[in-house]
Amino acid sequence: LEALRRHFRIERLTLVGHSWGPGIAALHAKKYPGRIGRLLLVSTLPLRRSALVAAFEAMEQGRDTAQRREMAEAMAAREADPADAAACRAYYVLWFDAFFADPADMRKSRGDFCAGSAESRRNKMAAVDRYTFPSLGDWDWGDAVRTIDAPTLAIHGTEDPLPLEGAREWVAAIPGARILVLDGVGHFPYLEDPDRFFPAADAFLAGR
Asked: What is the C-alpha separation between 199 and 43, in angstroms, rounded?
């Protein structure tokens, strides 16, 4: 991020972070203070690793026995052939079911977690999935986000498996930050409630 900021001669970056993306913003703010101009946090993970672990544990406990069995079978198929795009997609349909208040909204996504080459899918299992979160260590970004001096808005749904209280802690730690809570919305508000999400995001990013 800092290399891009310097290359394009941007004094302060406008950052939009979804899910664990706000963690990147926190690390950037700690290393390069004063370089964020505006910050939009969408469905953010908690400030502490322990809270995320607890949220994932609660999410897994909320899955029924049949879905857990399907997920285990789908993961076994991925492990047998990590390059198999169909097996990859079958797993993620099950994984993301818990992230939507209405799982039917998943079909609105144009993204594909299993896109790319066979080698990229192998690398995802062998390296990306294996090392990304461990590389962050036992994080607690409370001190880092307190250094953010940029206008900040958090948007978080009440049905997100990542706890709303976690988003409120981000807002409490960042001076002047605000939060927009979307009732009945899960982890992907731009898919689940675009009529509320995009006007709010556009207004904030435009400086209003």
From this structure: 17
- The more confidently predicted of residues 133 and 77 is 77
Of 115, 121, 73, 128, nearest to 95 (Cα)?
Answer: 73
Distances (CA, A) of 101 to 76, 105, 161, 185: 27, 8, 9, 6
Query: 134 vs 100, which has greater pLDDT?
Result: 100
* Residue 68: both structure tokens together: 């857990």
Cβ atoms of residues 33 and 147 within 8 Å: yes
CA atoms within 13 A on the CB side of 138: 1
pTM as predicted: 0.93
Q: Token digits for 90?
A: 């079958």
Backbone angles phi, psi at 158, to 5 degrees: -70, -20
Q: Which helix (H) or strand (E) holds 55?
A: helix 49-61
Integer Cα distance of 76 and 79 in angstroms:
5
99 CB contacts (<8 Å, ≥6 apart)? 160, 161, 186, 187, 188
